[in-house]
Amino acid sequence: MSALMIRDLHKSYGGLEILAGINLEARTGEFIALVGPSGCGKSTLLAMIAGLETVTSGEIWIGDRLVNSVQPKDRDIAMVFQSYALYPTMTVRQNITFGMESRGVPKAEQAEAVKRVAALLQIEQLLKRKPGQLSGGQRQRVAMGRALVRDPKLFLFDEPLSNLDAKLRVDMRTEIKKLHHRVGKTTVYVTHDQVEAMTLASRIAVMNQGSVQQFDTPKRIYDRPTNMFVAGFMGSPAMNFIPARLTGSTSIAVRAADGSDATLALAAPLPASAPKDVVLGVRPEHIYRFTTDLKSRKPAVESMQAPVELVEPTGAETLAVLRLGDLEITGRFEPDDAPVMGETITLGIDMSRACLFDPTTRALL
Amino acid sequence: MADIALNARHDPEAAAATRRYFWNRFFVYAVLTLFAVIYLAPLLVVVFNSLREQSEIARNGLISLPRSFRLDAWAQAWGTYCVSGTCEGMKRNFFNSLWMTIPATVISTLLGAMNGYVLSKWRFKGSETLFNLMLLGVFMPGQISLMPWAFLLGKLGLTNSTYGLVLIHVVQGISFTTLFCRNFYVSIPDDLIKAARIDGAGFWRIFRKIILPLSPPILIVTVIWQFTGIWNEYLFGVVFTSGQQQPITAALVALTAGGTTARAYDVMSAAVLIGALPPLLIYLFGGKYFVRGLTQGAIK
Ligand SMILES: Nc1ncnc2c1ncn2[C@@H]1O[C@H](COP(=O)(O)OP(=O)(O)O)[C@@H](O)[C@H]1O
Ligand SMILES: [Mg+2]
């Protein structure tokens, strides 16, 4: 059974359409990430699930209940806000019990619940403090505690980690993942950080301009993005988009640095309906230094020449900016095997991992 | 260490800067002192006169250092001085003012807090327009509403009563209290309200448990503003009450206008001071919170 079902959901402010027909579904216990650039409507969608924003049209189902006009408190949800939204005049304990107080949960039961959640999040020693006396990471924990104590059907997170510094963000990400494994609650997690989405979610909805571009597993989203927006948004450094021309049903030509055409064989034939001009999408990690050994291991690798314009070692890997026609593309290399600046390298492009897009519709071919 | 050694050596430029700084300061303080004297002199004269004997005032003039010291004038002004036939001093009027000012302050502040809460956190269609209309009240001089109030108090049977004045001051004050509170509450993050709604709190519970506990800075501001404003207000008091019902500001007019006897400057001075005391005390004890509350937001 699905814990959350969204059907053709629309939202307009005045005449302005913010959400344009969203369809989503989360199975019980699933971790769904909503990812997309700032302003694409993620928070609005989450607020509508929570009941904090009205529905313009469409349906929201939580469990087997249509909740379009149900009050937030009666939707059996809990939410963690980007700003944490801790009540500043209350102690951590009061913050956590506020919801139970509102619902008239007996005191003994409240104390029990606080104990359980505080232990789970390791915030026992913070219970008497006020939010103003907590660090960012501690506030984040308390905000999670306030949500966890409810034992709701559905967890909603709105960019819960984006106010933390980089290191803490990675730590908390791991903890959220562990927590989800332990608690097993259906979760909808909004983020603009594609790495967070990839690492946490069982399925990702990539949004842009008020509509879901693709809703699938992280692997499918990464390997087979349905369009150039998804392909460009997910992955860092971003996928390279190289204009190419079909030269047969199984080969394409791309412009090399010296102006000549390099012909690359496709791993699979294109449908007959494919346009003559296409865009070749190659992720940086699918670009190698070409060797015969590589070709024997990965038969789909195709080779071409490219001058190296710039090299950026990051330690774990080395990024190289390569020239292709009047285009710059990025390749990701092993530091030991990395090209050097000024060198002209023979590239191996793994065509079995490459994607082809229609440049006019921007859709995957 | 090197820096200190350098500074210790004589540096004519630094010395000139120091001198310039000194004269600048001197000038600033001189001007400030002058104006402080100009502002404080009348107060000083009144304080002196309230302590001088009437005969001495008559002899040495109104502006002069005291050569006698008595508290009689204060006692008279408070309890026994006769104004238009009744010899009860200002006592009754003082309490009239208190019973008018305290409820009017409390009620208008609470209403302002609630209005501010609604207009900032529970916006509805037209709420901005409503707020702008209420703002109009801030700029409306009191005399414009004299006639309507006369009509209304007459209908309600509240002429010549403290209740009538309380009603007037509550209504007249709502614009200001709403403005203060609304602007303060706007700085409270909306996420707090959303979180509380998910936590199952409704309109009132959010107000009591989240908004009010954050409000002391702005409530102090509105209370001080309303208290001093209502206490010092005089137009409505004069127009709508008379004799024993008058607040002290209105009664002071009657006192100084009473032309039957020779003017008792000592008693008048004491009476004026009695009338000015509550706002002065508020200023002395609450002034710093007033500034703080106006300048700080809801969440530090
Ligand atoms: N109350 C509102 N009135 C008008 N426009 C709004 C309102 N709330 C959000 N928007 C607009 O809706 C769009 C989506 O906002 P939001 O859901 O917050 O985006 P995201 O969370 O993806 O960054 C933005 O363009 C924003 O300006
Ligand atoms: Mg957002």
From TrEMBL, chain A:
GO terms under biological process: carbohydrate transport
Superkingdom of origin: Bacteria
Matches recorded under CDD domains: ABC_MalK_N
UniProt xrefs under Pfam families: ABC_tran, OB_MalK
Gene Ontology CC annotations of this record: ATP-binding cassette (ABC) transporter complex, substrate-binding subunit-containing
Subcellular location: Cell inner membrane
MF annotations from Gene Ontology: ABC-type transporter activity; ATP binding; ATP hydrolysis activity
Chief location: membrane
Membrane association type: Peripheral membrane protein
Annotated ranges, domain ABC transporter: 4-234
InterPro entries in UniProt: AAA+_ATPase, ABC_transporter-like_ATP-bd, ABC_transporter-like_CS, ABC_transpr_MalK-like, ABC_transpr_MalK/UgpC-like, Mo/tungstate-bd_C_term_dom, NA-bd_OB-fold, OB_MalK-like
Keywords in alphabetical order: ATP-binding, Nucleotide-binding, Transport
Gene3D superfamilies in UniProt: 2.40.50.100, Nucleic acid-binding proteins, P-loop containing nucleotide triphosphate hydrolases
Family: Belongs to the ABC transporter superfamily.
Name by which UniProt lists this protein: Sugar ABC transporter ATP-binding protein
Species, as recorded: Mesorhizobium temperatum
From TrEMBL, chain B:
The protein's name in its UniProt record: Sugar ABC transporter permease
Membrane-related topology note: Multi-pass membrane protein
InterPro entries on file: MetI-like, MetI-like_sf
Record domain ABC transmembrane type-1: where: 94-286
Keyword flag tRNA processing: no
Source taxonomy: Bacteria, Pseudomonadati, Pseudomonadota, Alphaproteobacteria, Hyphomicrobiales
One example of a Gene Ontology biological process annotation: transmembrane transport
Family membership noted in the UniProt record: Belongs to the binding-protein-dependent transport system permease family.
Segments passing through the bilayer: 26-48, 98-118, 130-151, 163-185, 206-228, 267-286
Pfam families reported for this sequence: BPD_transp_1
